[in-house]
Amino acid sequence: MKTLKILVGVALIIAISAFAMDKVSGSKGDAGYAIGDSATDFELKNVDDTMVSLSDFKDAKGFIVIFTCNHCPYSVAYEDRIIALDKKFKPLGYPVVAINPNNPKAYPDDSFANMKVRANEKGFTFPYLFDDGQFIYPQYGATKTPHVYVLEKTSNGNMVRYIGAIDNNYKNAKAADEKYVEDAVNALLEGKKVPIETTKAIGCSIKA
Fold this sequence. Notes:
alpha+beta, Glutaredoxin, eight-stranded mixed β-sheet, two-stranded antiparallel ribbon, 5 helices
């Protein structure tokens, strides 16, 4: 009985240690960011083969970080709206930064080569980055494509101000009467509190 208790105790210590390491490393078990958290920077390869990080945008007031991909019907349905968000808000200091979080081994349509093709076909006006190794999306807590994080650049870092969907109608942009990302960025530009800080992201599950 004494030996059994010792073994149970050792197993418990190992489990607690593993959980702690998981939280520190920002692995795929992490719940990701919440509103008010400071998002860490990253350096990912863009479709033009350059490396891009948030720190490169010296004049930015914040960012519209969107986890998206090539194949997902939801992502495809939102592509024109994502381009429109970048065209509207990049000149005002909130550029779009798109990230493909999918594992191309699990879904070859989302390979880096196919990302280049898609970006060229659609004329993306924003960086389209590849989360090679899938280290970034778990830090954010993204689960869908598309999944949006609006960040505000402050003296304390890039603070998370909105998490969720782009709007409330992925099928029809004109029918969307709740434009969550637009409303969030407009509020930040006016120095106001974001009216709706979180919504449920609607899309395809991220392919690990």
